Amino acid sequence: MSQWSQVQQLEIKFLEQVDQFYDDNFPMEIRHLLAQWIESQDWEAASNNEAMATILLQNLLIQVDEQLDRVSQEKNLLLIHNLKRIRKLLQGKYHGNPMHIAVIISNCLREERRILAAASMPVQGPLEKSLQNSVVSERQRNVEHKVSAIKNSAQMTDQDVKYLEDVQEEFDFRYKTIQSLEQSDKNSVLIKQEMLALQAMLNTLDYKRKEVLSKIGRVIHEIDVLMSNMLTEELLDWKRRQQIACIGGPLHGGLDQLQNCFTLLAESLFQVRRQLEKLDELLTRLTYDGDPIPVQRPQLLEKVNFLLYNLFRNSFVVERQPCMPTHPQRPMVLKTLIQFTVKLRLLIKLPELNYQIRVKATIDKNVSTVSNRRFVLCGTHVKAMNMDESANGSLSVEFRHLQPKEMKSSAGSKGNEGPHMVTEELHSISFETQVCLYGLTINLETSSLPVVMISNVSQLPNAWASIIWYNLSTNDPQNLSFFNNPPAATLSQLLEVLSWQFSSYVGRGLNSEQLNMLAEKLMGQQVSYNDYQLSWAKFCKEHLPGKSFTFWVWLEAILDLIKKHILPLWIDGYVMGFVSKEKERILLKDKTPGTFLLRFSESNLGGITFTWVDQLENGEVTFHSVEPYNKGRLAALPFADILRDYKVIMADNVPENPLKYLYPDIPKDKAFGKHYSCQPNEVSKPSDGGVKGYVPSVFIPVSKILNDSTDPHSPSDLLPMSPSVYAVLREHLSPTVIETAV
C-alpha cells in the first residue's frame, strides 16, 4: 500500500494536520494524482543536488502533462482547469530554483510519515501535544486579527491627517487674505466677523491636532502591546517548533504568517512616521500657544523609532538551520572542510530592501565556548538578501558554500580530551547586517542554534545525540555551556523523540510496545515512564549493562541497518525489532510451529535476527534464534532472500526452511514476496546465465541443529553454516537432494 493510500485512511483529526502543509507551493491534487511516482523518487537527495532537482522538476512537469492528456480524454473540465493552473504555477515558481520544490516535497513526505507514526500511537506524545495546543492556535488568530485592525487604524488616521491639512490650508488662505488688507479695512464689521470665524477655525485645528495625535498614540500603543506580548510569544513558539522539527518532530509552519504580521506592522509604523513628519510640516507653517504638536510629536516619534528598531531586530531569523547536504536529517552537525547550507530571512518584506541588505556570516563571534578549539568559515560568507531566490518571494539569503576550518591551536593545547568532549562542544554561527531605510540605520544580528563541530564522520552519532539532547531539554537558543551540567530529560519526551528518529529517518515510527522495550532497556526494569527523569550520561555515555557500547550507539547502529539494508521491510511494519528474548518467547509459545518474528540484536551492534517456534515429538515447545545478521553479511544477500531461502539441517535430515508464518499468522511469502530479488526456481537453473563453462552459484543461508547433548553450541543461537561444513554436506548428500534443498 502506498504511503498516500495509508494517509487517506487516517482519522479526520490527522487528515486535518495533513491538510495544513499542502498549499500552492505543492498542491494536494498533484500529490494525489502522482502518488506512486512521487514516492518512488529521491526528493531528499535532490534537495541538495541542483542537477538532480532540475531533472526531477522536468519529470514532474512531464507527469503533469500526461495526467492532462488523460483527463482531457475523460472531458473532466474542472480537473483540466486545475491541472493547467498548477502546471503553470509549478513552472513559474521553481524554474529558477528546482531544489526548493525538492525540499518542499521531501518535507511533505516526511511529515506524512510522522503523522502516520503518530496515528499508530495510542496516545499523542507530550511534545507534539504541546505544539498543537488550541490556545496557541487561538493566539495566532488573535495576532492576525489585531495586526489587521492596527493597519486599518493607521490608514484611517491618514485620512484624519489629510483633513487636518485641508483645514489648515483654508485657515492659511483666509488668514493671509486678511493680513493683506489695508489697516482701515481691518476695522470693518465683516473683517471682525471673519476674525471670529478664523478663531473658530483655529479652535477646530487645535482640536483636530490633539485628536490626530491621540489616534497616533493609540496606534503606537496597540503596536507596542502586540509586539511585547502576543507577537513575541508567537515568534518564540515558532523558534521552539523549529528546534523540535530539527530533531525529527512536526514541521514548523507559520513563518509566512509571521512575515505577514511583521510586514504589516512595519508598514503601519512607517505610515505613522510619515504622519508625524506631516504634522511637523504643518507645525512649521502654523503654531500657537498651547499647540500640542511640539510637545507630543518628539515623544511619539522616539517611540515609533524604538518599535521599528525592535521589530527589525526580531524579524532577522534563521529560517533553515546549518546542515551538511550529505546528511540532511542531521542538522547542526558540521564536519570540518565540508560545505554546509544555512538560510536566513527578514520577516519584514519591503520592496525597497531587495538586494540592499548584505549579510555576513561568522563563527563563535564574541562567544567564549567551553572548547579551546577555534574555527573560521571559508567560502562565500557575505551575500545580499533578495526576493528572487525563494519560491514564496520572501526576503532571504541562503549560504550554500560555507566550510568550517579548524584553526591551529596554541602549542600543546588540545582542549578536546576524552571520547565525548568534541561532541559535547557547542559552537555558534552568527550573522550580522545593517538596514538603512527612510533615514533609519539599524544593525541586525542573529545566530543559529548551537552546532557541534566534528572532524571525523565516526563522531557523527554522538554529535547528533548532543543535538537531540540540547533541543529536547532547553528553549535557550545560545547556551553554549549546556553540557557543563546537562539537565535530565523526561523519559516520555525522550521516547517520543526517539520515535521521531525512526519516522523521519527510516519512514516508520515506533509503537507503544517498541517504546516500552526501549524504556526497559534504558531503565533496566519495567517502569512507568511518564514522569521519570533520565540523565545524559545514561543515554549516551554509560555502557549498557554487560555491553561495550552505550544505548545511543546501539540505537544509531539499528537506524543505520534499517536505512541501508531492510528499509522496505521496516516501512511495511514487518520488523517487530524491539522485543526482548523473554517477550518473544511469550509471543511465540502458543503459535503454530514455524511462526517467527524479526528482532534487533541486543548484544551485536547493528544486527538483526529471527526466532521461530518449533514443537518436538513429545509436544515440548522449543525456540531457535539464528546468529544476528549484520550489515556486512546483508550487503552480500538481501534479508528478504535470506528469509525465503533459509535452510536448517536437523540431524540426518534433508535441509528444510523452518520459517512458515510471520508473527502473528501472516504467510511468509505473502509478507515478503514482493521484496524477493527473484523467484527461487529462477536462480537454480544453470542455463539462466553465468560465465560460459561454469554453473551459476547462489548463496543459501544454512544452519545445522545438533541434538547431541554434548554439543557445546546452544540450539537457541544458530550459526549460519560455513563453506567447509557445507562442502562436507555435499559429500554426503546426493545432487538430487542438494537441488531440492536449493
UniProtKB/TrEMBL annotation:
SUPFAM superfamilies given in the database record: p53-like transcription factors, SH2 domain, STAT, Transcription factor STAT-4 N-domain
Major location category of this protein: cytoplasm
Family matches, as Pfam families: SH2 (PF00017), STAT_alpha (PF01017), STAT_bind (PF02864), STAT_int (PF02865), STAT_linker (PF21354)
Keywords, comma-separated and alphabetical: Acetylation, Activator, ADP-ribosylation, Coiled coil, Cytoplasm, DNA-binding, Isopeptide bond, Methylation, Nucleus, Phosphoprotein, SH2 domain, Transcription, Transcription regulation, Ubl conjugation
Subcellular location: Cytoplasm; Nucleus
GO molecular function, one term: DNA-binding transcription factor activity, RNA polymerase II-specific
A Gene Ontology term for the protein's cellular component: cytoplasm
PROSITE patterns registered for this protein in UniProt: SH2 (PS50001)
Limits of the SH2 domain: 570-672
Taxonomic superkingdom: Eukaryota
Gene Ontology biological-process entries: cell surface receptor signaling pathway via JAK-STAT; defense response to virus; negative regulation of developmental process; regulation of apoptotic process; type I interferon-mediated signaling pathway; type II interferon-mediated signaling pathway
Family: Belongs to the transcription factor STAT family.
Protein name: Signal transducer and activator of transcription
Source organism of the structure: Penelope pileata
